[in-house]
Amino acid sequence: MDYQNIIVETRGKVGLITLNRPKALNALNDALVDELVVALNGFEADEAIGCIVITGSDKAFAAGADIGMMATYDYMDVYKGDYITRNWERVKTCRKPVIAAVAGFALGGGCELAMSCDMIYAADTAKFGQPEVKLGILPGAGGTQRLPRAVGKAKAMDLCLTARMMDATEAERAGLVARIIPAEQLLEETLKAATAIAGYSLPVVMMIKESVNRSFESSLNEGLLFERRVFHSAFALEDQKEGMAAFVEKRKAQFKNK
Ligand code: CO8
Fold it and tell me: What are phi and psi of 148, to 5 degrees?
C-alpha cells in the first residue's frame, strides 16, 4: 500500500509504524487510522514479525483527532458513518504485542491510541492529556475507560475534567507508562525491547498478551482459570521443550514459534 499518513518499516523481527502528519502534530484522521489498520493487518499476518512499535515524532506522538476534520462533522456523520472511531479497536485486537513509543504530545485520541497499545514507553518529553472538554466534547476512544483503569479514578477525572497535561514522570508514577527513556534514545531502546520480545516464542508471547488482557475483562477466579488453561497448553509447544532444554544445557534457546 502507498501510505500517505504513516511510515511502515521493519527492523529485524519488529514492525515499526511511524505516524507521519508532522504539520498537524500527527493529528489522527480517518485516513490515518485506516492506514494504521492496513499496516497492523500486514504485520499480524507476517510470520517474520514478532512485535510491533507505534511511534510519532519528537514533538508529538499524536495531538489528538484532527480538529479541522471533526469541526465539519455533525451527529449523523459520526453516528451513521462511524467516523473517527471506526476500526479503533484494531490495535487492541492485534494478537501480537504492540508498544507505543511516545515523545512529546499524546493528547486526546493520541493518548487513547497510546493506551490501546499493550504498553507505553515514554520519552522524558512526553505529555499526556485528554483535553476534549475544551472542545465541547468528551474523550471518545477510551479516554474515560482506559485512563481510569491505568491511573485510577482521581487522576483520570482530573485529567478529563480540567484538560491539564501530565508529564512523563507523573504518568510513570501513576501507572500509565511502563518506562521513561531519554528522548534521544526512545526509539533505539524501544526497538531493543521489541526485538527481545520478538526473540521469544511467538505463541507464548501471544498467550501472555491474551492472559494479561483477560485480567481486565474477568473476575480474579475466572482470570486465574483462564491463565491456568493457557499455561497448561504451553506444555504442548515445541518451544516449551526447547526453552527448558536450553536452560538445562546452559545455552540460548532457539525458538521455532511452534
Ligand atoms: N487537530 C488538527 N490540527 C492540529 C491538532 C489537532 N488535534 N493539534 C495541533 N494541530 C496543528 C495546529 O493547528 C498547527 O497547525 P498550523 O501550523 O497549520 O496552525 C500545528 O498542528 C502546530 O500546532 P500548534 O501551533 O498549536 O503547536 P503548539 O506547540 O503551540 O501547541 C498543542 C501544541 C498544545 C498540542 C496544541 O496544538 C493543541 O492544543 N492541539 C490540540 C490538542 C487537542 O485538543 N487534542 C484533542 C483533540 S479531540 C480528540 O482527540 C477526540 C478523540 C476522539 C476519538 C479519536 C479517534 C481517532
Answer: -60, -30
Q: Where are the domains of the chain?
A: 6-198, 201-249
Nearest CA to ligand 1 atom 12: 24
The SS3 call for residue 144 is coil
Burial 198-227 (b: 16+ CB within 10 A, else e): bbbbbbbbbbbbebeebeeeeeeeebeebb
Query: Choosing from 24, 60, 63, 65, which is the catalytic residue?
Result: 65
Q: Return the CATH superfamily for domain 201-249.
A: Lyase 2-enoyl-coa Hydratase, Chain  A, domain 2 (1.10.12.10)
Residues 66-85 have pLDDT tens digits of 999 999 999 998 888 888 78
Q: What grid cell was written down for 76?
A: 449523523
Q: What is the pLDDT of residues 115-172, one digit of tens each?
A: 999 999 999 999 999 999 999 999 999 999 999 999 999 999 999 999 999 999 999 9
Read off the pTM.
0.97
For domain 6-198, which architecture applies? Alpha-Beta Complex (3.90)
Torsion over CA: 2, 51, 42, 226 (sign): negative
Count of beta carbons in the 10 Å neighbourhood of residue 19: 24
Number of alpha carbons in the 13 Å side-chain half-sphere of residue 22: 5
Of 62, 132, 174, 194, which residue is the catalytic one? 132
User: What's the rounded Cα separation, in Å, for the pair 213 and 65?
Assistant: 25
142 lines ligand 1 (CB under 6 A): no
**Interval between CA 151 and ligand 1 midpoint (Å):** 24
